[in-house]
Amino acid sequence: MTKAAQTYDEIVRATVPEPDSSFRTAVGQENVRVLDELEQMLYARVVDSLLGIADIDPSGIAVEVARDHVTLRGQVSQVAQLDRIERQVHGVPGVGVVVNHLVVGS
Fold first, then answer.
1. Any idea what DSSP says for residue 77?
2. What is the layout of strands, in order, in the sheet containing 69-76?
3. What are the two backbone dihedrals, phi and then psi, of residue 100, each rounded to the nearest 5 degrees?
4. Is 85 in contact with 70 (CB distance < 8 Å)?
5. How far apart are CA 71 and CA 53, in angstroms?
6. What is the chain's pLDDT, residue by residue, as a tens digit (106 residues)?
7. 3-state secondary structure 4-65
8. What is the predicted pLDDT for the residue at 8?
9. Is 72:86 a contact under the CB 8 Å cutoff?
10. d(Cα 82, Cα 42) in Å, to the nearest integer?
11. In the prediction, which pLDDT does 15 show?
12. If residue 102 lies in a helix (H) or strand (E), which one and from where to where?
């Protein structure tokens, strides 16, 4: 009895433990983007500026930097803080665009 011819996919599945594993990201790193040196410096300046705002807890604010774009995510306790934080970040040297995804919550 002759064995039926196998397809390429069947051969790969039988001989390669994890086909195409080079294209998969590590678990937990699906959305990780490495900042270059200028982005790291801008990130540090933005975080430092947030630390300087009275009555705001910056630990609830996530800062993302891509070139000169800064995205803010997180939660603040008062509506008035939304605009104050955005103006503060706009004033940081090197910031071009601020995307404010902050929400008010308790």
1. S
2. 61-66, 69-76, 97-104
3. -105, 105
4. no
5. 18
6. 566 767 877 777 777 666 555 555 556 656 667 889 999 999 999 999 999 888 888 888 999 999 999 999 999 988 989 999 999 999 999 999 999 999 998 6
7. CCCCHHHHHHHHCCCCCHHHCCCCCCCCCCCCCHHHHHHHHHHHHHHHCCCCCCHHHEEEEE
8. 78
9. yes
10. 20
11. 75
12. strand 97-104
pLDDT at 23: 53
In this structure, what DSSP letter does residue 32 have? -
Token pair of 73 as six digits: 């995510």
pTM over 0.85: no
Q: What is the residue whose two structure tokens read 């086909």?
A: 19
Please name the residue that has the structure tokens 């975080």.
Answer: 47
Using an 8 Å Cβ cutoff, are 105 and 81 in contact?
A: no
CA 72, 75, 81, 83 dihedral sign is positive
- Neighbour tally for 56: CB within 10 Å: 18
Beta bridge partner(s), residue 74: 61, 102
Q: Which residues pair with 97 in a beta bridge?
A: 69
Instruction: Check: CB of residue 95 under 8 Å from CB of residue 64.
Output: no
d(CA 106, CA 97): 27
Query: Widest CA span of the chain, in angstroms?
Result: 82
